[in-house]
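The passage that follows is intended for readers who have already worked through the single-chain material. We present the inputs for a multi-component assembly, then the predicted structure in tokenized form, and finally a short commentary. You are encouraged to pause after the input and sketch how you expect the pieces to fit together before reading on.
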Amino acid sequence: MKAWEENIRKVVPYVPGEQPKLDNIIKLNTNENPYPPTPKAVEAADLFDLDLMRKYPDPAASLLVEEIAKRYGLKKSQVFVGVGSDDVISMAFLTFFNGKKPILFPDISYSFYSVWADVYRIPYVTPALTGDFKLRREDYFKENGGIIFPNPNAPTGVYENLEFIEDIVSHNQDSVVIVDEAYIDFGGKSAIALTEKYENLLVVQTFSKSRSMAGLRIGFAMGSEKLICALNDVKFSINSYTMNQYAIHLGVWAVRDEAYFQRNVNKIIKTRETAKLRLRELGFSFPDSMTNFIFATHKTVPAKKIFEALREAGIYVRYFDAPRIDNYLRITVGTDGEMEVLFGFLEEYLRKQ
Amino acid sequence: MKAWEENIRKVVPYVPGEQPKLDNIIKLNTNENPYPPTPKAVEAADLFDLDLMRKYPDPAASLLVEEIAKRYGLKKSQVFVGVGSDDVISMAFLTFFNGKKPILFPDISYSFYSVWADVYRIPYVTPALTGDFKLRREDYFKENGGIIFPNPNAPTGVYENLEFIEDIVSHNQDSVVIVDEAYIDFGGKSAIALTEKYENLLVVQTFSKSRSMAGLRIGFAMGSEKLICALNDVKFSINSYTMNQYAIHLGVWAVRDEAYFQRNVNKIIKTRETAKLRLRELGFSFPDSMTNFIFATHKTVPAKKIFEALREAGIYVRYFDAPRIDNYLRITVGTDGEMEVLFGFLEEYLRKQ
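Having made your guess, compare it with the prediction:
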């Protein structure tokens, strides 16, 4: 190894779900929305002035920040935007988890948390979820350098109510607490309301799931002006212009078309509830999901085996080869048609096992 | 100050050039290209399938990486892409400048370098440019944890030839050397050719200047497979999907249309050379520029005064209130028409001083 190689930061990168380049795949592996973004965004795309491309975007992405602030009843100074919620949370780790004490997040959770902690050299402890994948609130009452968890949790889909969230925040007024609400729109209640009372609470959301815009890369955080200002300072120490012109332009329309958003989310919730019944009939069990995915295990057939059979059949779901969850499949809720193909295949396949 | 506030990372953020929201501004302050991107990208934009938006982009941005690799005669594994060259360089700081020894960059240079070093807590030393804003090669022959400089340098516009670059790289085979070539296409010769010989040399370029796509946010790095692999590992530890679908899609066309690129760059070079004559006639002097800007000082009137008068007249140029350069204006090369307005104003204005 050469001298310059010794100075390279050693990391174990996050591995995202596969993005197959084949057509005719039923893609239920990355929790994307099966429906397109609002037609208003499509119209706006046609009106987009390509000449704008030559100019730098507004570094503050003001149009988008303003629209989000309006939608959630906040001030512009309480909203931060980034290139997907991964960018937002990574920035939040760098900004807020800067002490010597370990931060806390669940052992079964979004697997990027430990990757960010490692890359930024933040010590961490991961309290174990209960056997039925619930957070134990007392685990988060001890001294820490910060707390983060998704609500609903991923990849389990389990939702905790606001009383639970507030209990954790109120016990942790000396740390920044981040609630990662990537899936909150599918039936949960956001902790945004609590940010007024707790200035150390940051709520993160994304356009990638409920707003059908994973490809545009828009995430956002909401909280007190102090938190948002600190995030912006760090952002402006790394990259002034993160959101491209097009994302700002179309993102605005995704927020404006509230009616489409509600319809879209409700369609997915309906399909999810039907899917729960069908999966149970097929011998699966799962924690109750408040997201656009179901985290299911089969009573007799190993998850890995089902995963491989599905893949063979061109149906992609997510499988995590990790302790405690290696007998589960994370199945994204697709269209009714896609789910029919999935159930049709499973019915056939499981009959033969 | 509350306990959680003490854990916030303290930074002094970079301040980007102003993006005025007014129309009728002649904007020569952020080195944008005055001409639109290739019409091929405009056509491609119309063909862009909005339904793609709901899906995550290819995390490797393969289409774009492949196109860049082809254009520069490299393998795909030798190209890294990011959200503007700021994202690429910031990632390179985090990846490569990871030792205890100070990194080196010129005292007068891209002002983001010290901001990144601060945010990532990288020690640094900034050797002074000569009186006529040249790098002194011997300054970079001492022990260090890494080296970065722009070529041509910003905001001076001064270009060093490949013999000079190679001398620095060959003296520094124990560190990663980064040449930031944001402005190389306006007449300089890229150090890409040297990356074959030196596997510790990283060359960074951008679509924001010569390819008229500042608004799309595309930057890229080229170098040995070892360097690119290390960069990708860190990138995948921070954000899997940084380039949005639209940027990947249109960026490809910017690279493919080589003829447009050459014409665009040549137009700017021609305008720049005329501008040099006119500025000299008006009493300005400047280091010879190989970029799309000119870094000029006036023989009698202070730069700050001219800057303010121009701003008043709706002509934005960049002024840096920093030691050694506070009597200079950085003037972006605009269209011939824009430059005429600038010269017309200056002629009038300077006559009255």
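Commentary: Residues 258-281 of chain B form the longest helix (24 residues). Chain B has eleven helices and twelve strands. How closely did your sketch match?
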